[in-house]
């Protein structure tokens, strides 16, 4: 396994950022599928980096035994810029403080998977834009591209483009995903849509249908970081690469079973928003099955005056996928995601919330 360092120059003199990258060339890289895995693009989302820490242990063992067939690139923590942004003892890993942009937005969309389309000189770019172009360079050309994230408080779920479903249901099955969210369009150009974009032309239809896998993987919530869970996620990722022929199994492994969980288009997601500010009292947890009209959240607007409480109910029956980890909300903030069986009356159908 080779370890290299990608260096990104900062926006001021004397500042630079380092990204460790781990690669294995693969014993049959000319014929076996290749894989790219990254985590921590939102720097404060740590279940992914923890999982890739243990995944790399498994990959080293497989390499020593000659079982890594395809080329594998792993970026365990892809965003040192976000990791460096501390305000009042809290990491701000989601947005660039220099440009105010979300680190998982405005990624470059290429017309085709061609390294020649990447910029040769990035000196005039802001540091966060340099980061996005560098990740595009590292990931471009791989058959499997997985971007590991997490939510606030959440089930284990994945985003998959409609163009890649159902041929990628083995990913959801291997990860034991609680839900699959199907998206289309490019919204605000998150990394996932940028990684898919070069293959949407007619010349790459066969690749798109037969071997390409691009997914954002949401590994539960921000506080779900522990050794047991990280080991489990690492093993599931490893098993998926075995199922896809990137890695050879060390013993007989059954192929993934067809995915049996809910598969929900983004139009069916209700994002419950706070109509008023207040203290959040949840009536439901992620994983709760709810009926239309069931109380979901009560907001205490004025402690001591229950007449001003506001209770929000389910706009339709469905599954609670996520909820926020903080317990005070501003007016207009999202409070939870509800996966419904029909299109949301208020949903916008975008890939991700900001």
UniProtKB/TrEMBL annotation:
<dbReference type="InterPro" id="IPR053138">
    <property type="entry name" value="N-alpha-Ac-DABA_deacetylase"/>
</dbReference>
<feature type="domain" description="Succinylglutamate desuccinylase/Aspartoacylase catalytic">
    <location>
        <begin position="33"/>
        <end position="241"/>
    </location>
</feature>
<keyword id="KW-0378">Hydrolase</keyword>
<dbReference type="Pfam" id="PF24827">
    <property type="entry name" value="AstE_AspA_cat"/>
</dbReference>
<keyword id="KW-0862">Zinc</keyword>
<protein>
    <recommendedName>
        <fullName>Succinylglutamate desuccinylase/Aspartoacylase catalytic domain-containing protein</fullName>
    </recommendedName>
</protein>
<dbReference type="GO" id="GO:0016788">
    <property type="term" value="F:hydrolase activity, acting on ester bonds"/>
</dbReference>
<dbReference type="InterPro" id="IPR055438">
    <property type="entry name" value="AstE_AspA_cat"/>
</dbReference>
<keyword id="KW-0479">Metal-binding</keyword>
<dbReference type="GO" id="GO:0046872">
    <property type="term" value="F:metal ion binding"/>
</dbReference>
């Amino acid at each position: 396994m080779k370890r290299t360092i990608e260096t990104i120059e900062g926006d001021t003199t004397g500042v630079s950022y380092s990204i460790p990258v781990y690669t294995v060339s693969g014993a049959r890289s000319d014929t076996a599928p290749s894989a790219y895995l990254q985590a921590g693009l939102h720097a404060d989302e740590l279940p992914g980096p923890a999982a890739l820490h243990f995944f790399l242990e498994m990959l080293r063992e497989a390499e020593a035994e000659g079982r890594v067939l395809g080329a594998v690139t792993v970026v365990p923590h892809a965003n040192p810029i976000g990791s460096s942004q501390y305000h009042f003892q809290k990491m701000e890993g989601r947005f660039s403080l220099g440009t105010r942009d979300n680190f998982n937005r405005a990624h470059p969309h290429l017309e085709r998977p061609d390294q020649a389309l990447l910029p040769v000189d990035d000196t005039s770019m802001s540091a966060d834009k340099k980061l996005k172009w560098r990740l595009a360079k590292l990931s471009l050309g791989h058959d499997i591209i997985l971007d590991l994230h997490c939510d606030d408080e959440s089930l284990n779920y994945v985003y998959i483009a409609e163009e890649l479903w159902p041929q990628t249901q083995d990913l959801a099955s291997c990860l034991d995903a609680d839900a699959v969210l199907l998206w289309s369009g490019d919204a605000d150009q998150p990394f996932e849509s940028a990684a898919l974009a070069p293959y949407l032309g007619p010349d790459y239809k066969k690749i798109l249908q037969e071997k390409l896998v691009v997914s954002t993987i949401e590994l539960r919530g921000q506080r779900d970081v522990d050794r047991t869970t990280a080991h489990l996620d690492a093993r599931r990722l490893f098993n998926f690469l075995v199922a896809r022929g990137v890695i050879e199994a060390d013993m007989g492994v059954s192929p993934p079973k067809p995915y049996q969980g809910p598969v929900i288009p983004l139009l069916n997601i209700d994002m419950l928003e706070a109509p008023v500010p207040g203290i959040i009292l949840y009536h439901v947890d992620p994983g709760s099955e709810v009926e239309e009209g069931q109380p979901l959240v009560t907001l205490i607007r004025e402690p001591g005056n229950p007449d001003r409480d506001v209770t929000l109910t389910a706009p339709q029956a469905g599954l609670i996928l996520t909820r926020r980890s903080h317990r005070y909300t501003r007016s207009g903030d999202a409070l939870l995601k509800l996966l419904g069986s029909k299109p949301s009356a208020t949903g916008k159908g975008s890939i991700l919330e900001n």
